[in-house]
Amino acid sequence: MISLTNGGGELFLKQAEHKEFLMTKFKFALASIFAVVLVLGVSACSPGKLDVTNVKAIIDTRTPEEFAASHIVGSINFDYTSGSYLADVSSFDRRAKYYIYGPNETKTGEAITEMFTLGFTDLVNLGSFEDAQRILPLGVTP
């Protein structure tokens, strides 16, 4: 038995109760540590802005009308649906890095796949125009 003093009298706890008390404290401490690790892990996953310093070009694959309405500042427009997309991008340096966005992630992926067939090697799918706005540190045209 373990004896604890409480004021003037003694409080006795059975050894089993004491172990349960210690286990509860241990579980609480473990849960607290897990919560801190989880919060730090989730915050590390939050999307940050991409670095654009080593990017040769940001390519907008939407239609010229969509591009004229609004686009990422500094991006160039090569409409993926125009039929001349491959000819438009074929003169670019195939070893350079390019960020590409379009009307949606699927269409952007299709445009990137076509560029891979030409030998491009460093292409990043930014997804849709809205996605690109969230992950690029650049503004949009009004």
Strand content: 15-25%
- Class inferred from helices and paired strands: alpha/beta
Number of helices: 5
Q: Biggest sheet, open or closed, and with what strands and sense?
A: 4 strands, parallel
Helix content: 40-55%
Question: What is the arithmetic mean of pLDDT?
Answer: 79
Series of H and E elements: EEHEHEHEHEH
Shape: elongated
Low-confidence parts: 38-46
What is the strand tally?
6
Question: Under the CATH scheme, which architecture of the largest domain would be assigned?
Answer: 3-Layer(aba) Sandwich
* Ends distance: 77 Å
User: What is the name of the CATH topology of the largest domain?
Assistant: Oxidized Rhodanese, domain 1
Keywords:
Oxidized Rhodanese, domain 1, two-stranded antiparallel ribbon, 142 residues, 44% helix, alpha/beta
Topology:
Elements: E1 2-6, E2 9-13, H1 15-45, E3 57-60, H2 64-69, E4 76-77, H3 85-89, E5 97-102, H4 105-117, E6 122-128, H5 129-135
